[in-house]
Amino acid sequence: MLIQERLxxxxxxxxxxxxxxxxxxxxQDVAGFAREALGCRYLSFLTAVDWKEExxxxxxxxxxxxxxxxxxxxxxxxxxxxxxxxxxxxxxGADWMERECYDMFGIRFDGHPDLRRILLxxxxxxxxxxxxxxxxxxxxxxx
Length: 143
Description:
By secondary structure, the protein is of the alpha/beta class. The chain has three helices and six strands. Helices cover 20% and strands 27% of the residues.
């Protein structure tokens, strides 16, 4: 498979859907490769998962709608790491999705053109989707 040759990493998934875990340093390069070589021109979603002590994982699904093919990219940031290259240069639609991940998980997307909160007020303290986030901590009122 082309993606396995390019990455030198195993890929899994059902027919027409491939899941690949890539090093964070290759995140943007692999997304660009998928766009150009595999025709994956549609970014369906970008989100994150908090694996507690194992760290955060960024997940993006990109699709080739003409060939009914999807690629789910995953990148583990590792414990205490909160930085990932931005995909906005490859997929304009990543803009608001990365802002949401920043807002909810505290992930800083290097190269993002306008990384700021999108759901919560700018003075909000913390990132609510982190498992370490204290739900009983007082926060400023939502306006």
